[in-house]
Amino acid sequence: MTLAAAQSPPARLARAITHRTRGRTHGPVTRLMSPSDLGESLKPFVFLDLFDHEGAPFSGPLHPHSGIATLSYVAEGAVSYIDPDNVRGTLPAGGVEWMQAGRGMWHGGGLDKAGRTRGFQLWIALPPELELGPTKSIYQAPDEVPQDGPARVLLGSYGTATNSIVPPSPINYLAVRLRAGERWRYAPPTGHTVLWTAILSGALSAPSVLQRGDLATFEPSSEAVEFEALADAEFVLGSAAPHQHESRVRLLLCPHLAGRASRWRGTHLVDQEPPRSRWPSLSEALRESDLG
Questions:
Q1: Which ranges constitute the DSSP H helices of 58-208?
Q2: What pLDDT score was predicted for residue 181?
Q3: For 250, which of 67, 118, 143, 239 could close a Cys bridge (C-beta 3.0–4.6 Å)?
Q4: N-terminal to C-terminal alpha carbon distance within the chain
Q5: What's the sign of the alpha-carbon dihedral 32, 247, 221, 158?
Q6: Which domain holds residue 55?
Q7: Complete edge-to-edge strand list for the sheet that includes strand 136-140
């Protein structure tokens, strides 16, 4: 070994994990990310809830939101929905609900079948020009969600697959399933320096070991990450260009959820955790169901 080689820094073997968390659990819902913690550094990703409920079906009330977008992904079970036109439907396992609230819209839903229901609900910050822009509700059946290899594209593009939902900014959001021993490499697009993953089931090496219920964030970079399944695993992954705007999550509150207010009220949540009554619809409905 030469002196120069001995004095050289060790080679970088992998993109480093900078934070990991198991979030906060309330009944069947675990909040893995919020603006008061990782949601600040991971913008445009703002909130992430993992839901895992087993029990009787139920329906949640209609309520309004504005200024944000949410994407709900059902990995197991089925979720019911009511759209702004009062159209009712069911989102089965593998389906996606996209709600871009813009200037304000109503929606609602619950769990459609008895048994186990698992998945994620992700909140995404909108750029200023869309915060008060047009509203959108899109529901994709499992066969409408494009796939490349083990990755289903919930938002954005990967490989040969592109979801028809137009993201509000450069974002990829994937749902991946690997069998034990399988490897999969994610190379983010140019400019996607924000990267995180959350494990729904099983265990992964990335290269640190990640298990069910973990959320891990990676150092800002454009480097790829390789995942190896240590057991059969399901996980989601998000990458994006950094959100350069102030975090402002606007929700319109139902009167009965806000101390029986006498009129509709708006709220601005800036880098703070909202009270339970302001959590997103599916998560809120699950929590209310758990409370009986």
A1: 128-131
A2: 97
A3: 67
A4: 68
A5: positive
A6: 15-241
A7: 24-26, 29-33, 45-55, 115-125, 68-76, 96-100, 136-140
